[in-house]
Q: What sequence folds into this?
């Protein structure tokens, strides 16, 4: 589940459960970020040189096997949301 999401173009982060917002003090950029309940995160942004969307994942897990399994789960969910 998403714990927090951020819009770097609009310079805010929002807690998904409480709705509390806070300011992001970084340069404005066409980037969305999602922090998940398990400590993982997903970053989504358009490519600067090609007509495509890029996604990046950070994974937190006790072992490499668990990290790889979590990555597969997050990648599949992201691909489904993006229509791939």
A:
């Amino acid at each position: 589940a998403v714990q927090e999401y951020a819009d770097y173009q609009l310079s805010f982060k929002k807690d998904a459960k409480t709705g509390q917002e806070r300011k992001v003090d970084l340069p404005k950029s066409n980037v969305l970020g999602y922090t998940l309940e398990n400590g993982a995160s997903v970053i989504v942004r358009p490519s600067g040189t090609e007509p495509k969307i890029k996604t990046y994942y950070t994974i937190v897990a006790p072992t490499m096997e668990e990290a790889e399994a979590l990555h597969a789960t997050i990648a599949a969910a992201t691909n489904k949301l993006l229509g791939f």
